[in-house]
Amino acid sequence: MIKKNQLKEELTELDKKHFIHPTSNMKQLQEEGPSFIFTEGDGIYLKDMEGRTLMDSLSSLWNVNIGHGRKELGEAAKAQMEKLAFTSTFSNWSHEPAIRLAAEVAKWTPGDLNATFFTSGGSEANDTAFKTVRHYWKLKGHPEKKKIISRKKSYHGVAMGSTSATGIPEFHTFTESIAPDFYYVDSTIESLKELIEKEGADSIAAFISEPVQGSGGVNLPSEGYFEEVRKICDKHHILLISDEVICGFGRTGTHFGMENFGIIPDIITMAKGVTSGYAPLGGMIISEKLHQEIYEKAEGNFWHGYTYSGHPTAAAVALKNLEIIKNENLIDNVNRMGEEMLKGFKWIQEQNKQVIDVRGIGLLGAISIDRKSADVAPVGPKVVAEALKRGLICRSVVYDGQDTLAFAPPFVINKKQMDEMITIVDESIRAVN
Ligand code: PLP
Fold it and tell me: Record's superkingdom (predicted)?
């Protein structure tokens, strides 16, 4: 026991001194140390150094979709590393895992979206998409089509382009400068139409949107929204990018989120669920039409590439992960458990007057609490603290007057575990009142 405490103390001090955490409160780290030091994962549970076993209701960062601790992925990584740990894919060099993964992804996508450029994650995938659409319009003789439109409350990552497309103000005010040629609209058709009218369609390259906004508070689109967006984009020759970094590969109960709304984007960006977080990998998937137009018109290189584009080990892990999702019919479970989750949320709303909205699609859902006014301290963080005491990790989204709890449990959650999650959330909301 003494040994364990010593180790925790040692790690805490090393962490505070040497580890700069992503999207975290630096002062809080210095005052309190890391909020968790995790040691193991198994299914929907994580263990930490305190010896706590905690239900992971957000699949860590909306990504550990097949759940923690799947040995097959470790074995796939080991086998690939031992055989060919790395080689470049620049200059048309290739290897089997990346080729097979690109071909496998094409089986999952709707329409003719069947050519993939690989990245290490979602931010790079979106930056790749922004550069690709501008390159495409340049090749087509329209270099002036370079503006990117995104929605307020969207999250598209933190590389320079993806930060600039992100519609959550804190990510912009963090620095004094973001990239030019990014514009934001409210999530209404009128707002999109107004902006196109104001800026001129001949200056706009693409519109990017998550099918369901994740980090912005699990916001579902209004009825018919994306059908109308698709029509507007077609009318004005604006490419439609669907950021499926959270929604892709089954999270919303379909292969990709936009399928729920019956539309096919020109470009999909993906990451997270493609490997269930077991290895860093993302990508941009483009339609056959776009692919062909680009390579037919291209002169010289596609001047864009990451050292880890198509990393063999990450690709081998992704292939195994997608095989598991298919073989174990995990998307069927997403739909079944998604219904249970929403039913549970509705029950919570009936029990708790301060819950003003519940929503969900597949295993992506949220509970919004009445904040009354922006001056009142949000309730969400207190609910999160109460849930933790009861063995549940969940996430609170607080900004712009929102006081929301977000949920995205692993695809492998069962009915008993879902009931437990709902019970804990209900108890935790009651406990703060
Ligand atoms: N797009 C969406 C919708 C996301 O949720 C995220 C990450 O949460 C990203 C892009 C950025 O991905 P990454 O953190 O892998 O760069």
Answer: Bacteria
Q: Per-residue pLDDT tens for 3-18?
A: 878 999 999 999 999 9
Gap between the Cα atoms of 317 and 280, Å rounded: 10
C-alpha angle 118-90-140 in degrees, rounded to nearest 5: 70
Q: Which amino acid is at 294?
A: I
Q: Could you please report the per-residue DSSP string of 28-87? A: HHHHH--S--EEEEEBTEEEETT--EEEETTHHHHT-TT-B--HHHHHHHHHHHHHH---
CA distances from 422 to 80, 334, 345, 419 (A): 40, 16, 7, 5
pLDDT of residue 2: 64
State if residue 161 touches ligand 1 by the CB under 6 angstroms criterion: no
pLDDT at 1: 59
Considering the segment(s) 36-66+329-431 as one domain, its CATH architecture is: Alpha-Beta Complex (3.90)
Give, as one character, the DSSP assignment of residue 130.
H
Average pLDDT, the chain: 97
Pocket test for ligand 1, best of 64, 124, 246 (most atoms within 8 A of CB): 246
171 C-alpha to center of ligand 1: Å?
13
> Where are the extended beta strands (E) located within 213-338?
239-243, 267-270, 282-287
Give dist(CA 165, CA 150) in Å, integer: 6
* ipTM of the modeled complex: 0.99
Tell me how far the alpha carbon of residue 128 lies from the centroid of ligand 1, in angstroms. 13
**pTM, 2 dp:** 0.98
204-262 per-position pLDDT tens digit:
999 999 999 999 999 999 999 999 999 999 999 999 999 999 999 999 999 999 999 99
Q: Which CATH architecture has domain 71-327?
A: 3-Layer(aba) Sandwich (3.40)
C-alpha dihedral sign at 112, 328, 420, 34: negative
155 ligand 1 Cβ < 6 A: yes
What are the boundaries of each domain within the chain? 36-66+329-431, 71-327
Residue 261 DSSP symbol? G
